[in-house]
């Protein structure tokens, strides 16, 4: 076991230079799941924040010594996914603007309650 930990690559695989980017792939996976959701479910504020976050960390990953290309690739993928989601939301918001499934009974009930509250 000690010979395994003494291997030159073991130091890398046991460091935050490896496990930090691995954990950040969760953002990419969550963004990929969001690609399947209706655009009205996307939060433009959170998606924009994730875009800025990934852009900053892409730069950071290239500036630090040694460069962390795993971190860079993870944030590059996250940037692409989040920009795609933001584009889907903007397309929905500024061209369609209609909430999908608006004919469902639950949405109608919410609209009726809002109308009743505004008449008081």
Fraction of helical residues: over 70%
Q: Rounded to an integer, what's the Rg over CA atoms? A: 22 Å
**Structure annotation, total helices:** 6
Measured between the Cα atoms of the first and last residue, the distance is: 74 Å
SSE pattern: HHHHHH
Shape: elongated
| Structural class computed from helices and strand pairing | mainly alpha
Number of strands: 0
Strand content: under 5%
Mean pLDDT: 81
Low-confidence region ranges: 104-110
Main pleated-sheet profile? none
Structure description:
This protein is mostly helical. 77% of the residues lie in helices and 0% in strands. It contains 6 helices and no strands. 16% of the residues are buried.
SSE map:
Layout: H1 2-5, H2 8-13, H3 16-34, H4 44-63, H5 69-96, H6 105-119
Helix pairs in contact: 3-5, 4-5
Keywords:
120 residues; elongated; mainly alpha
In a few lines, what is going on in this structure?
The protein is mainly α. It is built from six helices and no strands. Helix 3 (16-34) runs parallel beside helix 5 and helix 4 (44-63) packs antiparallel against helix 5 (69-96).
């Amino acid at each position: 076991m000690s010979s395994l930990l003494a291997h030159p690559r073991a130091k890398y695989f046991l460091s935050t230079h490896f496990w930090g980017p691995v954990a950040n792939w969760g953002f990419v996976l969550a963004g990929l799941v969001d690609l399947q959701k209706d655009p009205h479910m996307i939060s433009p504020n959170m998606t924009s924040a994730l875009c800025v976050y990934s852009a900053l960390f892409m730069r950071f990953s290239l500036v630090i010594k040694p460069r962390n290309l795993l971190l860079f690739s993870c944030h590059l993928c996250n940037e692409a996914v989040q920009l795609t989601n933001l584009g889907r939301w903007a397309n929905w918001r500024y061209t369609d603007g209609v909430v999908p499934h608006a004919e469902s009974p639950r949405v109608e009930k919410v609209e009726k309650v809002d109308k009743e509250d505004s008449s008081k």
